[in-house]
């Protein structure tokens, strides 16, 4: 048998999915799984959502790609919806979260350049962050496992310990352009930034004349029960990067900024061939229409509360397996006392999918459209996995 010709960069599970419907995925051999990973928080409206399917099919029959040499009407519609629903005045469309972060970093640097302060290029980030896989965004994330083997770390990023206010203040200098933070660290172990800390970060930026950049690639588009997670703190950023859920499974990202901050990004300063293509815009518009419909986000908050309550009960009943529950809404993390990879295998054996994270956490990220009944079913399966893990531990101890 011929081996794979793909780059060996993924430790893939031996699962091949053929079709999906809502929260359910079906493999090529007919097994069905409750998808509580949503393609790493991407399939915000589940699989095969009729509004998204119709939007894509309709646009696909008209036009796929023309490039940003020309006006793309869907961009105007989508950007207007985003600016009306957020702090932002300007939007740049990308294909991914990493590209959205690249645009955010460039926007911050260019803002100060256009103000006559070209020395302000440094972005302060926080330990445990994950901002993407490009050379700039792995430097921003600062994690050694992602930096190793790719040469010198890209300059312009200063990292401080998570939650260390004094270290943050000490790091601010005449070369600082801004702070970049995820309201909830996803890859970093579903670590939430406290509301008061987010408010303090906004004040620190204002007091020091620097920008607040938010990475809401994973936390945005209703995932926490608000359209964007920073809304819980009652603050607004200067620049925000989004992706994942905004496309509902189709590759879409965006960088949002205020008018003043985006003013430095003049013709020729940035660009993309595929970003904002007609297909992506059609799907993104459809996603936002669903998420912004009356009652949708309230429903996410209710389902997040139900899932939190049910998982908390599982943790209480299985303290040898789980330590605590983290996160908000439908972005939750189970901190494990056993290796999360081994427990993830038990989850899959019970027909439920989750996503691993740092700090020995399993992320629970179901589609925002999951029903109360499906939440009950998912929790039953998660508890069965915990029981199976406990039996394995007892057997190991006996041997």
Overall radius of gyration: 21 Å
Structural class: alpha/beta
- Termini separation (Å)? 39 Å
Quote the beta fraction: 15-25%
- Count of alpha and pi helical runs: 13
In summary, what is this structure?
About 40% of the residues lie in helices and about 20% in strands. It is of the alpha/beta class and about 400 residues long. A hairpin with a 4-residue loop joins strand 2 (about 25) and strand 3 (about 30-35).
Summarize the structure in words.
With 399 residues, this protein is of the alpha/beta class. Helices cover 39% and strands 18% of the residues. Strand 13 (322-328) and strand 14 (331-336) form a beta hairpin.
Which labels suit this protein?
four-stranded mixed beta sheet; alpha/beta; 399 residues; seven-stranded mixed beta sheet
Secondary structure elements and their pairing?
Blueprint: E1 17-21, E2 24-27, E3 32-35, H1 38-41, H2 50-60, H3 73-85, E4 90-94, H4 97-114, E5 122-126, H5 135-141, H6 144-147, E6 157-160, H7 165-171, E7 176-181, E8 184-185, E9 191-192, H8 195-208, E10 211-215, E11 239-242, E12 253-257, H9 259-262, H10 278-291, H11 296-317, E13 322-328, E14 331-336, H12 340-349, E15 352-353, E16 355-357, E17 361-364, H13 372-398
Helix pairs in contact: 2-10, 3-10, 11-13, 12-13
């Amino acid at each position: 048998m011929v081996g794979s010709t793909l780059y060996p960069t993924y430790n893939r599970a031996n699962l091949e999915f053929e079709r999906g419907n809502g929260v359910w995925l079906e493999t090529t051999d007919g097994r069905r799984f409750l998808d509580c990973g949503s393609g790493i928080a991407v399939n915000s409206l589940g699989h095969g959502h009729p509004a998204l399917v119709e939007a894509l099919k309709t646009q696909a029959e008209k036009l796929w790609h023309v490039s940003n040499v020309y006006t793309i009407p869907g961009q105007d519609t989508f950007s207007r919806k985003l600016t009306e629903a957020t702090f932002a005045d300007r939007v740049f469309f990308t294909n991914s979260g990493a590209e959205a972060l690249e645009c955010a970093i460039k926007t911050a640097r260019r803002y100060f350049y256009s103000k006559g302060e070209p020395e302000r290029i440094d972005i302060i980030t926080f330990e445990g962050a994950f901002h993407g896989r490009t050379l700039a965004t792995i430097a921003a994330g600062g994690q050694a496992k992602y930096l190793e083997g790719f040469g010198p770390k890209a300059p312009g990023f200063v990292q401080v310990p998570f939650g260390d206010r004094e270290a943050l203040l000490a790091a601010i200098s005449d070369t600082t352009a801004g702070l970049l933070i995820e309201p909830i660290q996803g890859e970093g172990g579903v670590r939430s930034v406290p509301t008061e800390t987010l408010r303090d970060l906004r004040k620190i930026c204002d007091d020091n004349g620097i920008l607040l950049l938010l990475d809401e690639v994973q936390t945005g588009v209703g995932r926490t029960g608000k359209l964007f997670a920073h809304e819980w703190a009652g603050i607004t950023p200067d620049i925000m990067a989004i992706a994942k859920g905004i496309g509902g499974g189709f590759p879409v990202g965006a960088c949002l900024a205020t008018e003043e901050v985006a003013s430095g990004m003049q013709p020729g300063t940035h660009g993309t061939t595929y970003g904002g293509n007609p297909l992506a815009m059609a799907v993104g518009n459809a996603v936002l229409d669903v998420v912004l419909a009356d009652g949708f986000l309230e429903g996410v908050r209710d389902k997040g509360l139900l899932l939190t309550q049910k998982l908390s009960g599982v943790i209480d009943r299985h303290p040898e397996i789980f330590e605590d529950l983290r996160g908000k809404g439908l972005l939750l993390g189970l901190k494990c006392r056993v290796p999360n990879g081994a427990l993830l295998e038990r989850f899959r054996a019970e027909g439920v999918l989750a996503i691993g994270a740092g700090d020995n956490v399993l992320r629970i990220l179901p589609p925002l459209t999951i029903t109360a009944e499906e939440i009950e079913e998912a929790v039953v399966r998660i508890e069965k996995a915990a029981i199976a893990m406990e039996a394995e531990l007892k057997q190991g101890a006996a041997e």
